[in-house]
C-alpha cells in the first residue's frame, strides 16, 4: 500500500461510521480472500441516469424515459457479497481507527476507509433505477430534482441499515422507506405551494414592477376583481417586505420561486444551496421559515 500524507490521515481520523453489521465470517483467517476474490460483481452503468438528468431540462414524457433504463441488475448472491464487503471494510476501518496509530495501521486505515466509500457508492449507483421508478410514481412532471435528491439520500440511509443475514433483497428492504420518503416530499411541496390562496409560483419582473423587482403571480380565483385584489396585496407584501424576511430568506424565495431556468424549470434545493454556499437542508429550513412569515403576513394584511 502506498504511503499516505499525514493531513489525509488526520482528515480521515475525523470520520467514522456510526454502524456496521458484524458477521461470523469476519473472524475467519482467510476472510479477505473469501470476500474479495475473483467473484464477479458488475460495475454500475449510469449512462442512462445521466441521460435522464439531462432530459429533466425539458418537459419529460415519462413514457419515453424507459429507453434510458439500461442499469445492470445484481443477482441476490452478488448483492449479498457486495454488502458483506462493505460491512467488512467499515469494520476494518473502525478497528484500525480505534487501535494503535502505527505507520502501517494508518496506511491500512486509509485503504479500508476508501474501500468502504467506494463500495457504498457502488451499491447506491446500482439502485438509481429504483429511485427513478419511485419518482415516476409520485411526481408526474419534469421538476423532479428535489424528489431525486431526497430519494438518493433515503437510499444511502437504507444501505447502512440493510442486514444481508435476513435473506431479503435490498430492494425489498428499501422500497417501503423510499415510498414513505417520496410521499413526505410530495406533502412538503404541497404545503409550500398552499400557504395562501394562490400558488407560490412567483417570478422576477422587469423595471415596471415594484422596487424589489417582484411581480405577483397569477391566482387561482376565477373572479377578475378578487384576482386583481390578491395580486395587489401580494405585491405589497413582497415589495414592502411586510413579512419581515431576512436577507437569506429573500434570496431563497427569489431563487426557489421567482427565478427560472431554461424551459421554465424551477431551481432545486441543492442548486440554490450551491449558489448561496450552504447545504440543501439549510435552504429547506430557510424556505420553510420564510413561507411561514409570508403566510402570517398574508392573513394579517389581506384576510
In words, what does this structure look like?
By secondary structure, this protein is mainly α. It has 2 domains: 6-193, Four Helix Bundle (Hemerythrin (Met), subunit A); 203-301, Arc Repressor Mutant, subunit A, CATH 1.10.10. It has helices at 6-13, 31-35, 47-55, 76-98, 103-126, 128-138, 145-161, 170-193, 224-239, 247-258, 269-276, 280-301; strands spanning 203-204, 214-215. A two-stranded antiparallel ribbon has the order 1-2. Helix 6 packs across helix 8 (170-193) and helix 11 crosses helix 12. The longest helix is centred in the middle third of the chain and has 24 residues, at 103-126. It is elongated and about 75 Å long. It starts with 5 loop residues before the first helix and ends with a helix.
Amino acid at each position: 500500500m502506498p504511503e499516505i500524507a499525514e493531513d489525509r490521515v488526520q482528515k480521515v481520523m475525523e470520520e467514522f461510521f456510526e454502524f456496521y453489521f458484524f458477521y461470523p465470517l469476519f473472524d475467519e483467517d482467510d476472510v479477505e480472500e473469501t470476500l474479495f476474490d475473483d467473484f464477479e460483481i458488475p460495475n454500475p452503468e449510469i449512462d442512462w441516469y445521466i441521460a435522464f438528468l439531462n432530459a429533466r431540462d425539458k418537459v419529460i414524457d415519462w413514457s419515453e424515459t424507459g429507453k434510458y433504463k439500461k442499469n445492470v441488475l445484481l443477482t441476490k448472491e452478488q448483492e449479498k457479497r457486495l454488502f458483506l464487503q462493505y460491512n467488512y471494510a467499515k469494520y476494518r476501518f473502525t478497528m484500525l481507527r480505534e487501535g494503535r496509530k502505527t505507520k502501517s495501521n494508518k496506511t491500512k486505515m486509509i485503504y479500508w476507509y476508501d474501500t468502504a466509500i467506494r463500495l457504498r457508492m457502488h451499491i447506491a449507483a446500482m439502485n438509481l433505477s429504483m429511485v427513478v421508478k419511485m419518482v415516476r410514481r409520485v411526481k408526474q412532471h419534469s421538476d423532479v430534482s428535489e424528489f431525486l435528491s431526497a430519494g438518493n439520500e433515503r437510499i444511502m440511509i437504507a444501505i447502512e441499515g440493510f442486514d444481508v443475514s435476513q435473506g431479503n433483497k435490498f430492494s425489498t428492504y428499501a422500497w417501503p422507506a423510499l415510498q414513505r420518503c417520496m410521499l413526505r416530499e410530495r406533502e412538503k411541496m404541497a404545503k409550500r405551494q398552499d400557504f395562501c390562496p394562490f400558488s407560490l409560483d412567483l417570478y422576477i419582473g422587469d423595471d415596471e414592477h415594484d422596487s424589489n423587482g417582484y411581480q405577483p403571480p397569477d391566482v387561482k380565483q376565477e373572479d377578475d376583481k378578487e384576482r386583481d385584489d390578491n395580486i395587489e396585496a401580494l405585491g405589497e407584501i413582497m415589495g414592502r417586505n411586510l413579512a419581515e424576511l431576512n436577507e437569506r430568506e429573500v434570496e431563497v424565495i427569489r431563487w426557489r420561486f421567482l427565478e427560472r431556468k431554461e424551459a421554465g424549470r424551477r431551481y432545486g434545493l441543492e442548486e440554490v444551496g450551491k449558489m448561496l454556499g450552504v447545504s440543501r437542508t439549510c435552504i429547506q429550513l430557510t424556505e420553510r421559515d420564510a413561507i411561514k412569515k409570508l403566510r402570517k403576513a398574508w392573513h394579517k394584511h389581506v384576510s
